[in-house]
Amino acid sequence: MTQAGLDKPSSVSLNEAFWYWLKLGFISFGGPAGQIAIMHTDLVEKKRWISEQRFLHALNYCMLLPGPEATQLAIYIGWLLHRTWGGVMAGVLFILPSLILLGVLSWIYLAFGDLPVIAGILYGIKPAVVAIVLAAAWRIGSRSLKNGLLIAIAVAAFLAIAVFHLPFPAIVLCAAVIGFAGGRWSPDRFRAGGGHAASAPSSYGPALIDDATPTPAHARFSWMKLGLVSAFGLALGALAWGVLAARHGSHGVLPQMGWFFTKAAMLTFGGAYAVLPYVYQGAVSTFQWVTPAQMIDGLALGETTPGPLIMIAAFVGFVGGWTKEVFGPDGILLGAVAGACVASFFTFLPSFIFILAGGPLVEATRDNIRLTAPLTAISAAVVGVIVSLAVFFGEHVFRLDQPLQAWDFSAMAIALAAGVALFRYKTGTIKLIGACALAGLVVSYLH
Predict the structure, then answer these.
(1) Which regions span the lipid bilayer (predicted)?
(2) Helix or strand or coil: residue 207?
(3) Which residue, among 77, 71, 87, 79, has the nearest Cα to 31 in the 3D structure?
């Protein structure tokens, strides 16, 4: 689609950008693929703030980093348009609506979760989550498992976490070592493939930041800027953690959340689904902030809200702050809100640092096979980890750990229908969640 003769857009004011990023935060449903598609439609095709090639260049960079790539892409474009404050504004507004909505839903869940209507809705949504997680594994696997070696890494990762219960960071580290070695001795097997592929380049008219637009001065790499921004970001995180530790002790719930979600943020190669097993291991098994059933319910709630799926961290923080009564029995709600805010802050701070500090450096080296091969191997391992997550959810949602007569065949039927809708008819996440919630209400009423 060529639109010749269009004038180049005028400069974008910070106020105009503010309202766009705020709107995006409320409509960014559909996971990273849906969020990236919305930004492409708005910023490349309609508003023409950035050209398609510059957009894809930024996206490729974000996909090399741990963390939610759609959030990072918003930060990147905001930073490119309006320097550091533009990037901070874009990232915060992309996250904030989801944090508020998920906080409200978490409160309703904890305060009124035993009501039949709420229980019925969650009964229908949880089988849909199993299908959604499997669809995520298929989507990532179809673009990353390009040869037998990468498939073998995925299978090994599945067995490592599902059968041998190895910790997720150890699996990531092993995959990275294999990728590093493979990048040296068999580079063709570890060349990045797939990703958010684009069709032939399209022209939607001249863009404000076009293909030939020089890199803005603030986006050019310098070691001094890299050091200063990195130091500021690390100092901010250390200061926030220090304040929590001074108030609650280094082993208090909130400081533990801060450190835990910082580590989780560094492991989100391949998207939020990849780090969920690690979050589960810590939040359920290690710290007991949530129960296994609450973790599944939290993922179900997360699928119903806009923003990045890694916002499940806010749910974990909210429930953990509530159940652990971090501010005492008279401040349960305040403690829950504090838990959600702490979890969100430490989850997303690394993404801001990666973009604002390391953008130009990573862009300059993103085609270096020695740097991309470990990430290719990690992406392969992520597929196996995500499949293990679907197996874990399915076991609990369908009650497969119970005798055959206790299996939940109604939930299985909802999951099967959801899978057909996703794989065969490419149904959107929101429509799917709504339909499954309605089915859950009907099944609960009939029972």
Answers:
(1) 18-38, 85-110, 117-138, 150-181, 226-246, 258-280, 300-320, 332-359, 371-394, 406-423
(2) coil
(3) 71
